[in-house]
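User: Sequence for E2 ubiquitin-conjugating enzyme below. Tokens please.
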Amino acid sequence: MAAARAIMRQVQEIITNPVEGVNLKPTEDLAEIEADVRGPEGTPFAGGNFQVSLILGEDYPAAPPKGYFRTKIFHPNVSEKGEICVNTLKKDWSPELGLRHVLTVIRCLLIEPNPESALNEEAGRLLLEDYDAFAKRAKMMTGVHAAPLRQAESTNTVPGDKKAVDKRRAMLKRL
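Assistant: Structure tokens for E2 ubiquitin-conjugating enzyme:
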């Protein structure tokens, strides 16, 4: 019960004060947090809208959530199945970090991939050996699989949008 309240507080805080480039999506299940993450400008992921899920186990916040890209992405720290490899979700986890920190770190991975802890070895190798080839492939995958931001904004909720605010309020009332 205390974990559920902590999750609700964290979700409320993110809805009230959004993480830059991240749009939390209303869900009824506190065990799975869904978000749209915008590809940062100046990266091969720019213009993309990536769906991300955080799965919160029964032992959250003592144990980290599991992170997944639901949108296919060519990135060294994301497996073919969408699993995210970042120290925050593994050895560096601390219950004090919370969901805001996790979402911020995931967006930062799009800016600064870490080829040393690659789940996608091909992406890691290309990033280290031939950045231009990596960027070309990542940009192509973004264009094919990540809905262009313009299109995503017309179909998904956008921070500040009245419908989005109403959906968020309704979600919080259910919590």
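The chain has one domain: 1-146.
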